[in-house]
Amino acid sequence: MAADRTARYIAVEGPIGVGKTALARRLAADFGSQLILEHVEDNPFLRKFYEDPTRYAFQAQLHFLLERYRQQRDVHERGLPAAGLVADYLFAKDGIFAGVTLNADEGALYRQVFDLLDRQIPRPDLVIYLEARPAVLLKRIKKRGLEYERTITKDYLERLTEAFRNFFHHYTDAPLLVVNSSDIDFVEHGSDLADLIHEIRGMRQGVQHYIPLGSR
User: Fold this and answer.
1) What end-to-end distance do the CA atoms of the chain give, in Å?
2) Where are the alpha helices (DSSP H) in 52-189?
3) Residue 182: which of 29, 12, 15 has the closest Cα?
4) Could you tell me if residue 19 is left (phi over 0), alpha (psi between -120 and 50 degrees) or otherwise beta?
5) How would DSSP label each residue in 31-71?
6) Residue 3 lies inside a defined structural domain of this protein
7) Domain membership of residue 52 as a residue range
8) Burial 124-152 (b: 16+ CB within 10 A, else e)
9) 91: confidence class by pLDDT, cuts 50, 70, 90
10) 187 pLDDT exceeds 70?
């Protein structure tokens, strides 16, 4: 991937409450790129999942998988826009949640479906992985005040955070920029956003770790 490539496909990823969508919006606006957002609230099983995870985890997960697949297939069929593309999720993230929420039998069936779909979608040119401490995530989730997220526990976020960390520790499908966002809100701190954008523009191959200016 060349650093000066005009059309780039950037995916922003991380656990619940880390700030993926806010950062994706800012990056798309700065780069003049098309923005793709996952429609979390459109999942009819999501509220049921938070009320009864054991009963509704598979339905919720499968719905997310199919909706994300439809979005990604559209990207594949239309081609990458000339001004690039920014998404607030990585398709592979679906498997991270599945590993945390599904039992062994559900997970095996889910993996078969996932593997079939995963072969047919485009890979991003760059993945930005936002990480933050579980306590910070819980605070941000409570601050945004979505009713169906009120039952999210710190224990769940700890398991999810660890699953994300393990996944990206072995991730090699695209260049990866790991960003420590525990102490920074990129929407509120313009200087940190500008510095991160500079880092993104210069990102080449491999894995890089970025600590925002305000955290140093």
Assistant:
1) 29
2) 53-78, 93-101, 104-118, 134-144, 154-169
3) 15
4) left
5) HT-EEE---GGG-TTHHHHHH-HHHHHHHHHHHHHHHHHHH
6) no
7) 9-215
8) bbbbbbbbbebebbbebbeeeeeeebeeb
9) very high
10) no
Predicted local confidence at residue 138, as pLDDT? 94
Question: How many structural domains is the chain composed of?
Answer: 1
Annotated catalytic residue, options 88, 94, 125, 192:
88
Our measurement of the distance from residue 69's CA atom to the centroid of its chain's CA atoms, rounded to an integer in Å, reads 14
Instruction: Kindly state whether residue 198 falls inside one of the protein's structural domains.
Output: yes
| 88 included as an active-site residue | yes
| Any domain includes 4 | no
Model confidence at 179: pLDDT above 80: yes
CA dist 96 → 1, 89, 100, 188 (Å): 26, 12, 7, 29
Task: Find which of 129-143, 181-195, 199-213 is predicted with most confidence, using mean pLDDT.
Answer: 129-143
**pLDDT tens-place string over residues 44-72:** 999 999 999 999 999 999 999 999 999 99
Give domain status of residue 207, yes or no: yes
Residue 191: CATH number of its domain: 3.40.50.300
